[in-house]
Amino acid sequence: MSFSQFFAANWLLFLLLFIVLAAIAFYEFNNRGKSGQQLSNIAASAFINNGALLLDTRTAAEYKAGHIAGAKHVGADKFADYAQSLNLAKDKPIIVYCQSGLSSRQQANLLTAQGFSNVYQLKSGIDGWKAENLPLV
């Protein structure tokens, strides 16, 4: 069976495949950059050393138990108010992190929606930072 015969016999499957691929591409295109890029720990360290603002969105107790040096604690419940009061250049790098890297996406979305263009999330959050034995204070 040649490809053209296979295609003719299964045209509906090819149509569905095309629709699914188009939907995935559309979704990815529309959501690119909305929640910030994820940074590895090494890349985050380089950004931190170059003056990026580091925001810890965990609870106060988690922050006190150990955080990345230079991080500012802004709990997730107060993040919206804090983000509105930020008086930074819109292109200043901002790294947002939480415990595991999942919930910081909402805060990154909020900053991006307010026009900040260099918003990043720490991939795997503080758990990933600890797993690589990086320092906490």
Itemize the secondary structure elements and their pairings:
Elements: H1 3-9, H2 11-31, E1 37-39, H3 41-49, E2 53-56, H4 60-65, E3 72-73, H5 79-85, E4 94-97, H6 104-113, E5 119-122, H7 125-131
Parallel strand pairs: 1-5, 2-3, 2-4, 4-5
CATH topology-level fold name of the largest domain? Oxidized Rhodanese, domain 1
- The fraction of residues in strands falls at 5-15%
How many β strands by DSSP? 5
Number of helices: 7
Trace the largest sheet across and list its strands: 1-5-4-2-3
CATH first level of the largest domain: Alpha Beta
Structural class: alpha/beta
Structural shape: elongated
Domains (count): 2
Radius of gyration: 20 Å
What is the level-2 CATH architecture name of the largest domain?
Answer: 3-Layer(aba) Sandwich
Q: Could you name the ranges where pLDDT drops below 50 across 5 or more consecutive residues?
A: none
InterPro entries: GlpE_sulfurtransferase (IPR050229), Rhodanese-like_dom (IPR001763), Rhodanese-like_dom_sf (IPR036873)
Domain Rhodanese: 48-137
Protein name: Thiosulfate sulfurtransferase
Pfam family, one: Rhodanese
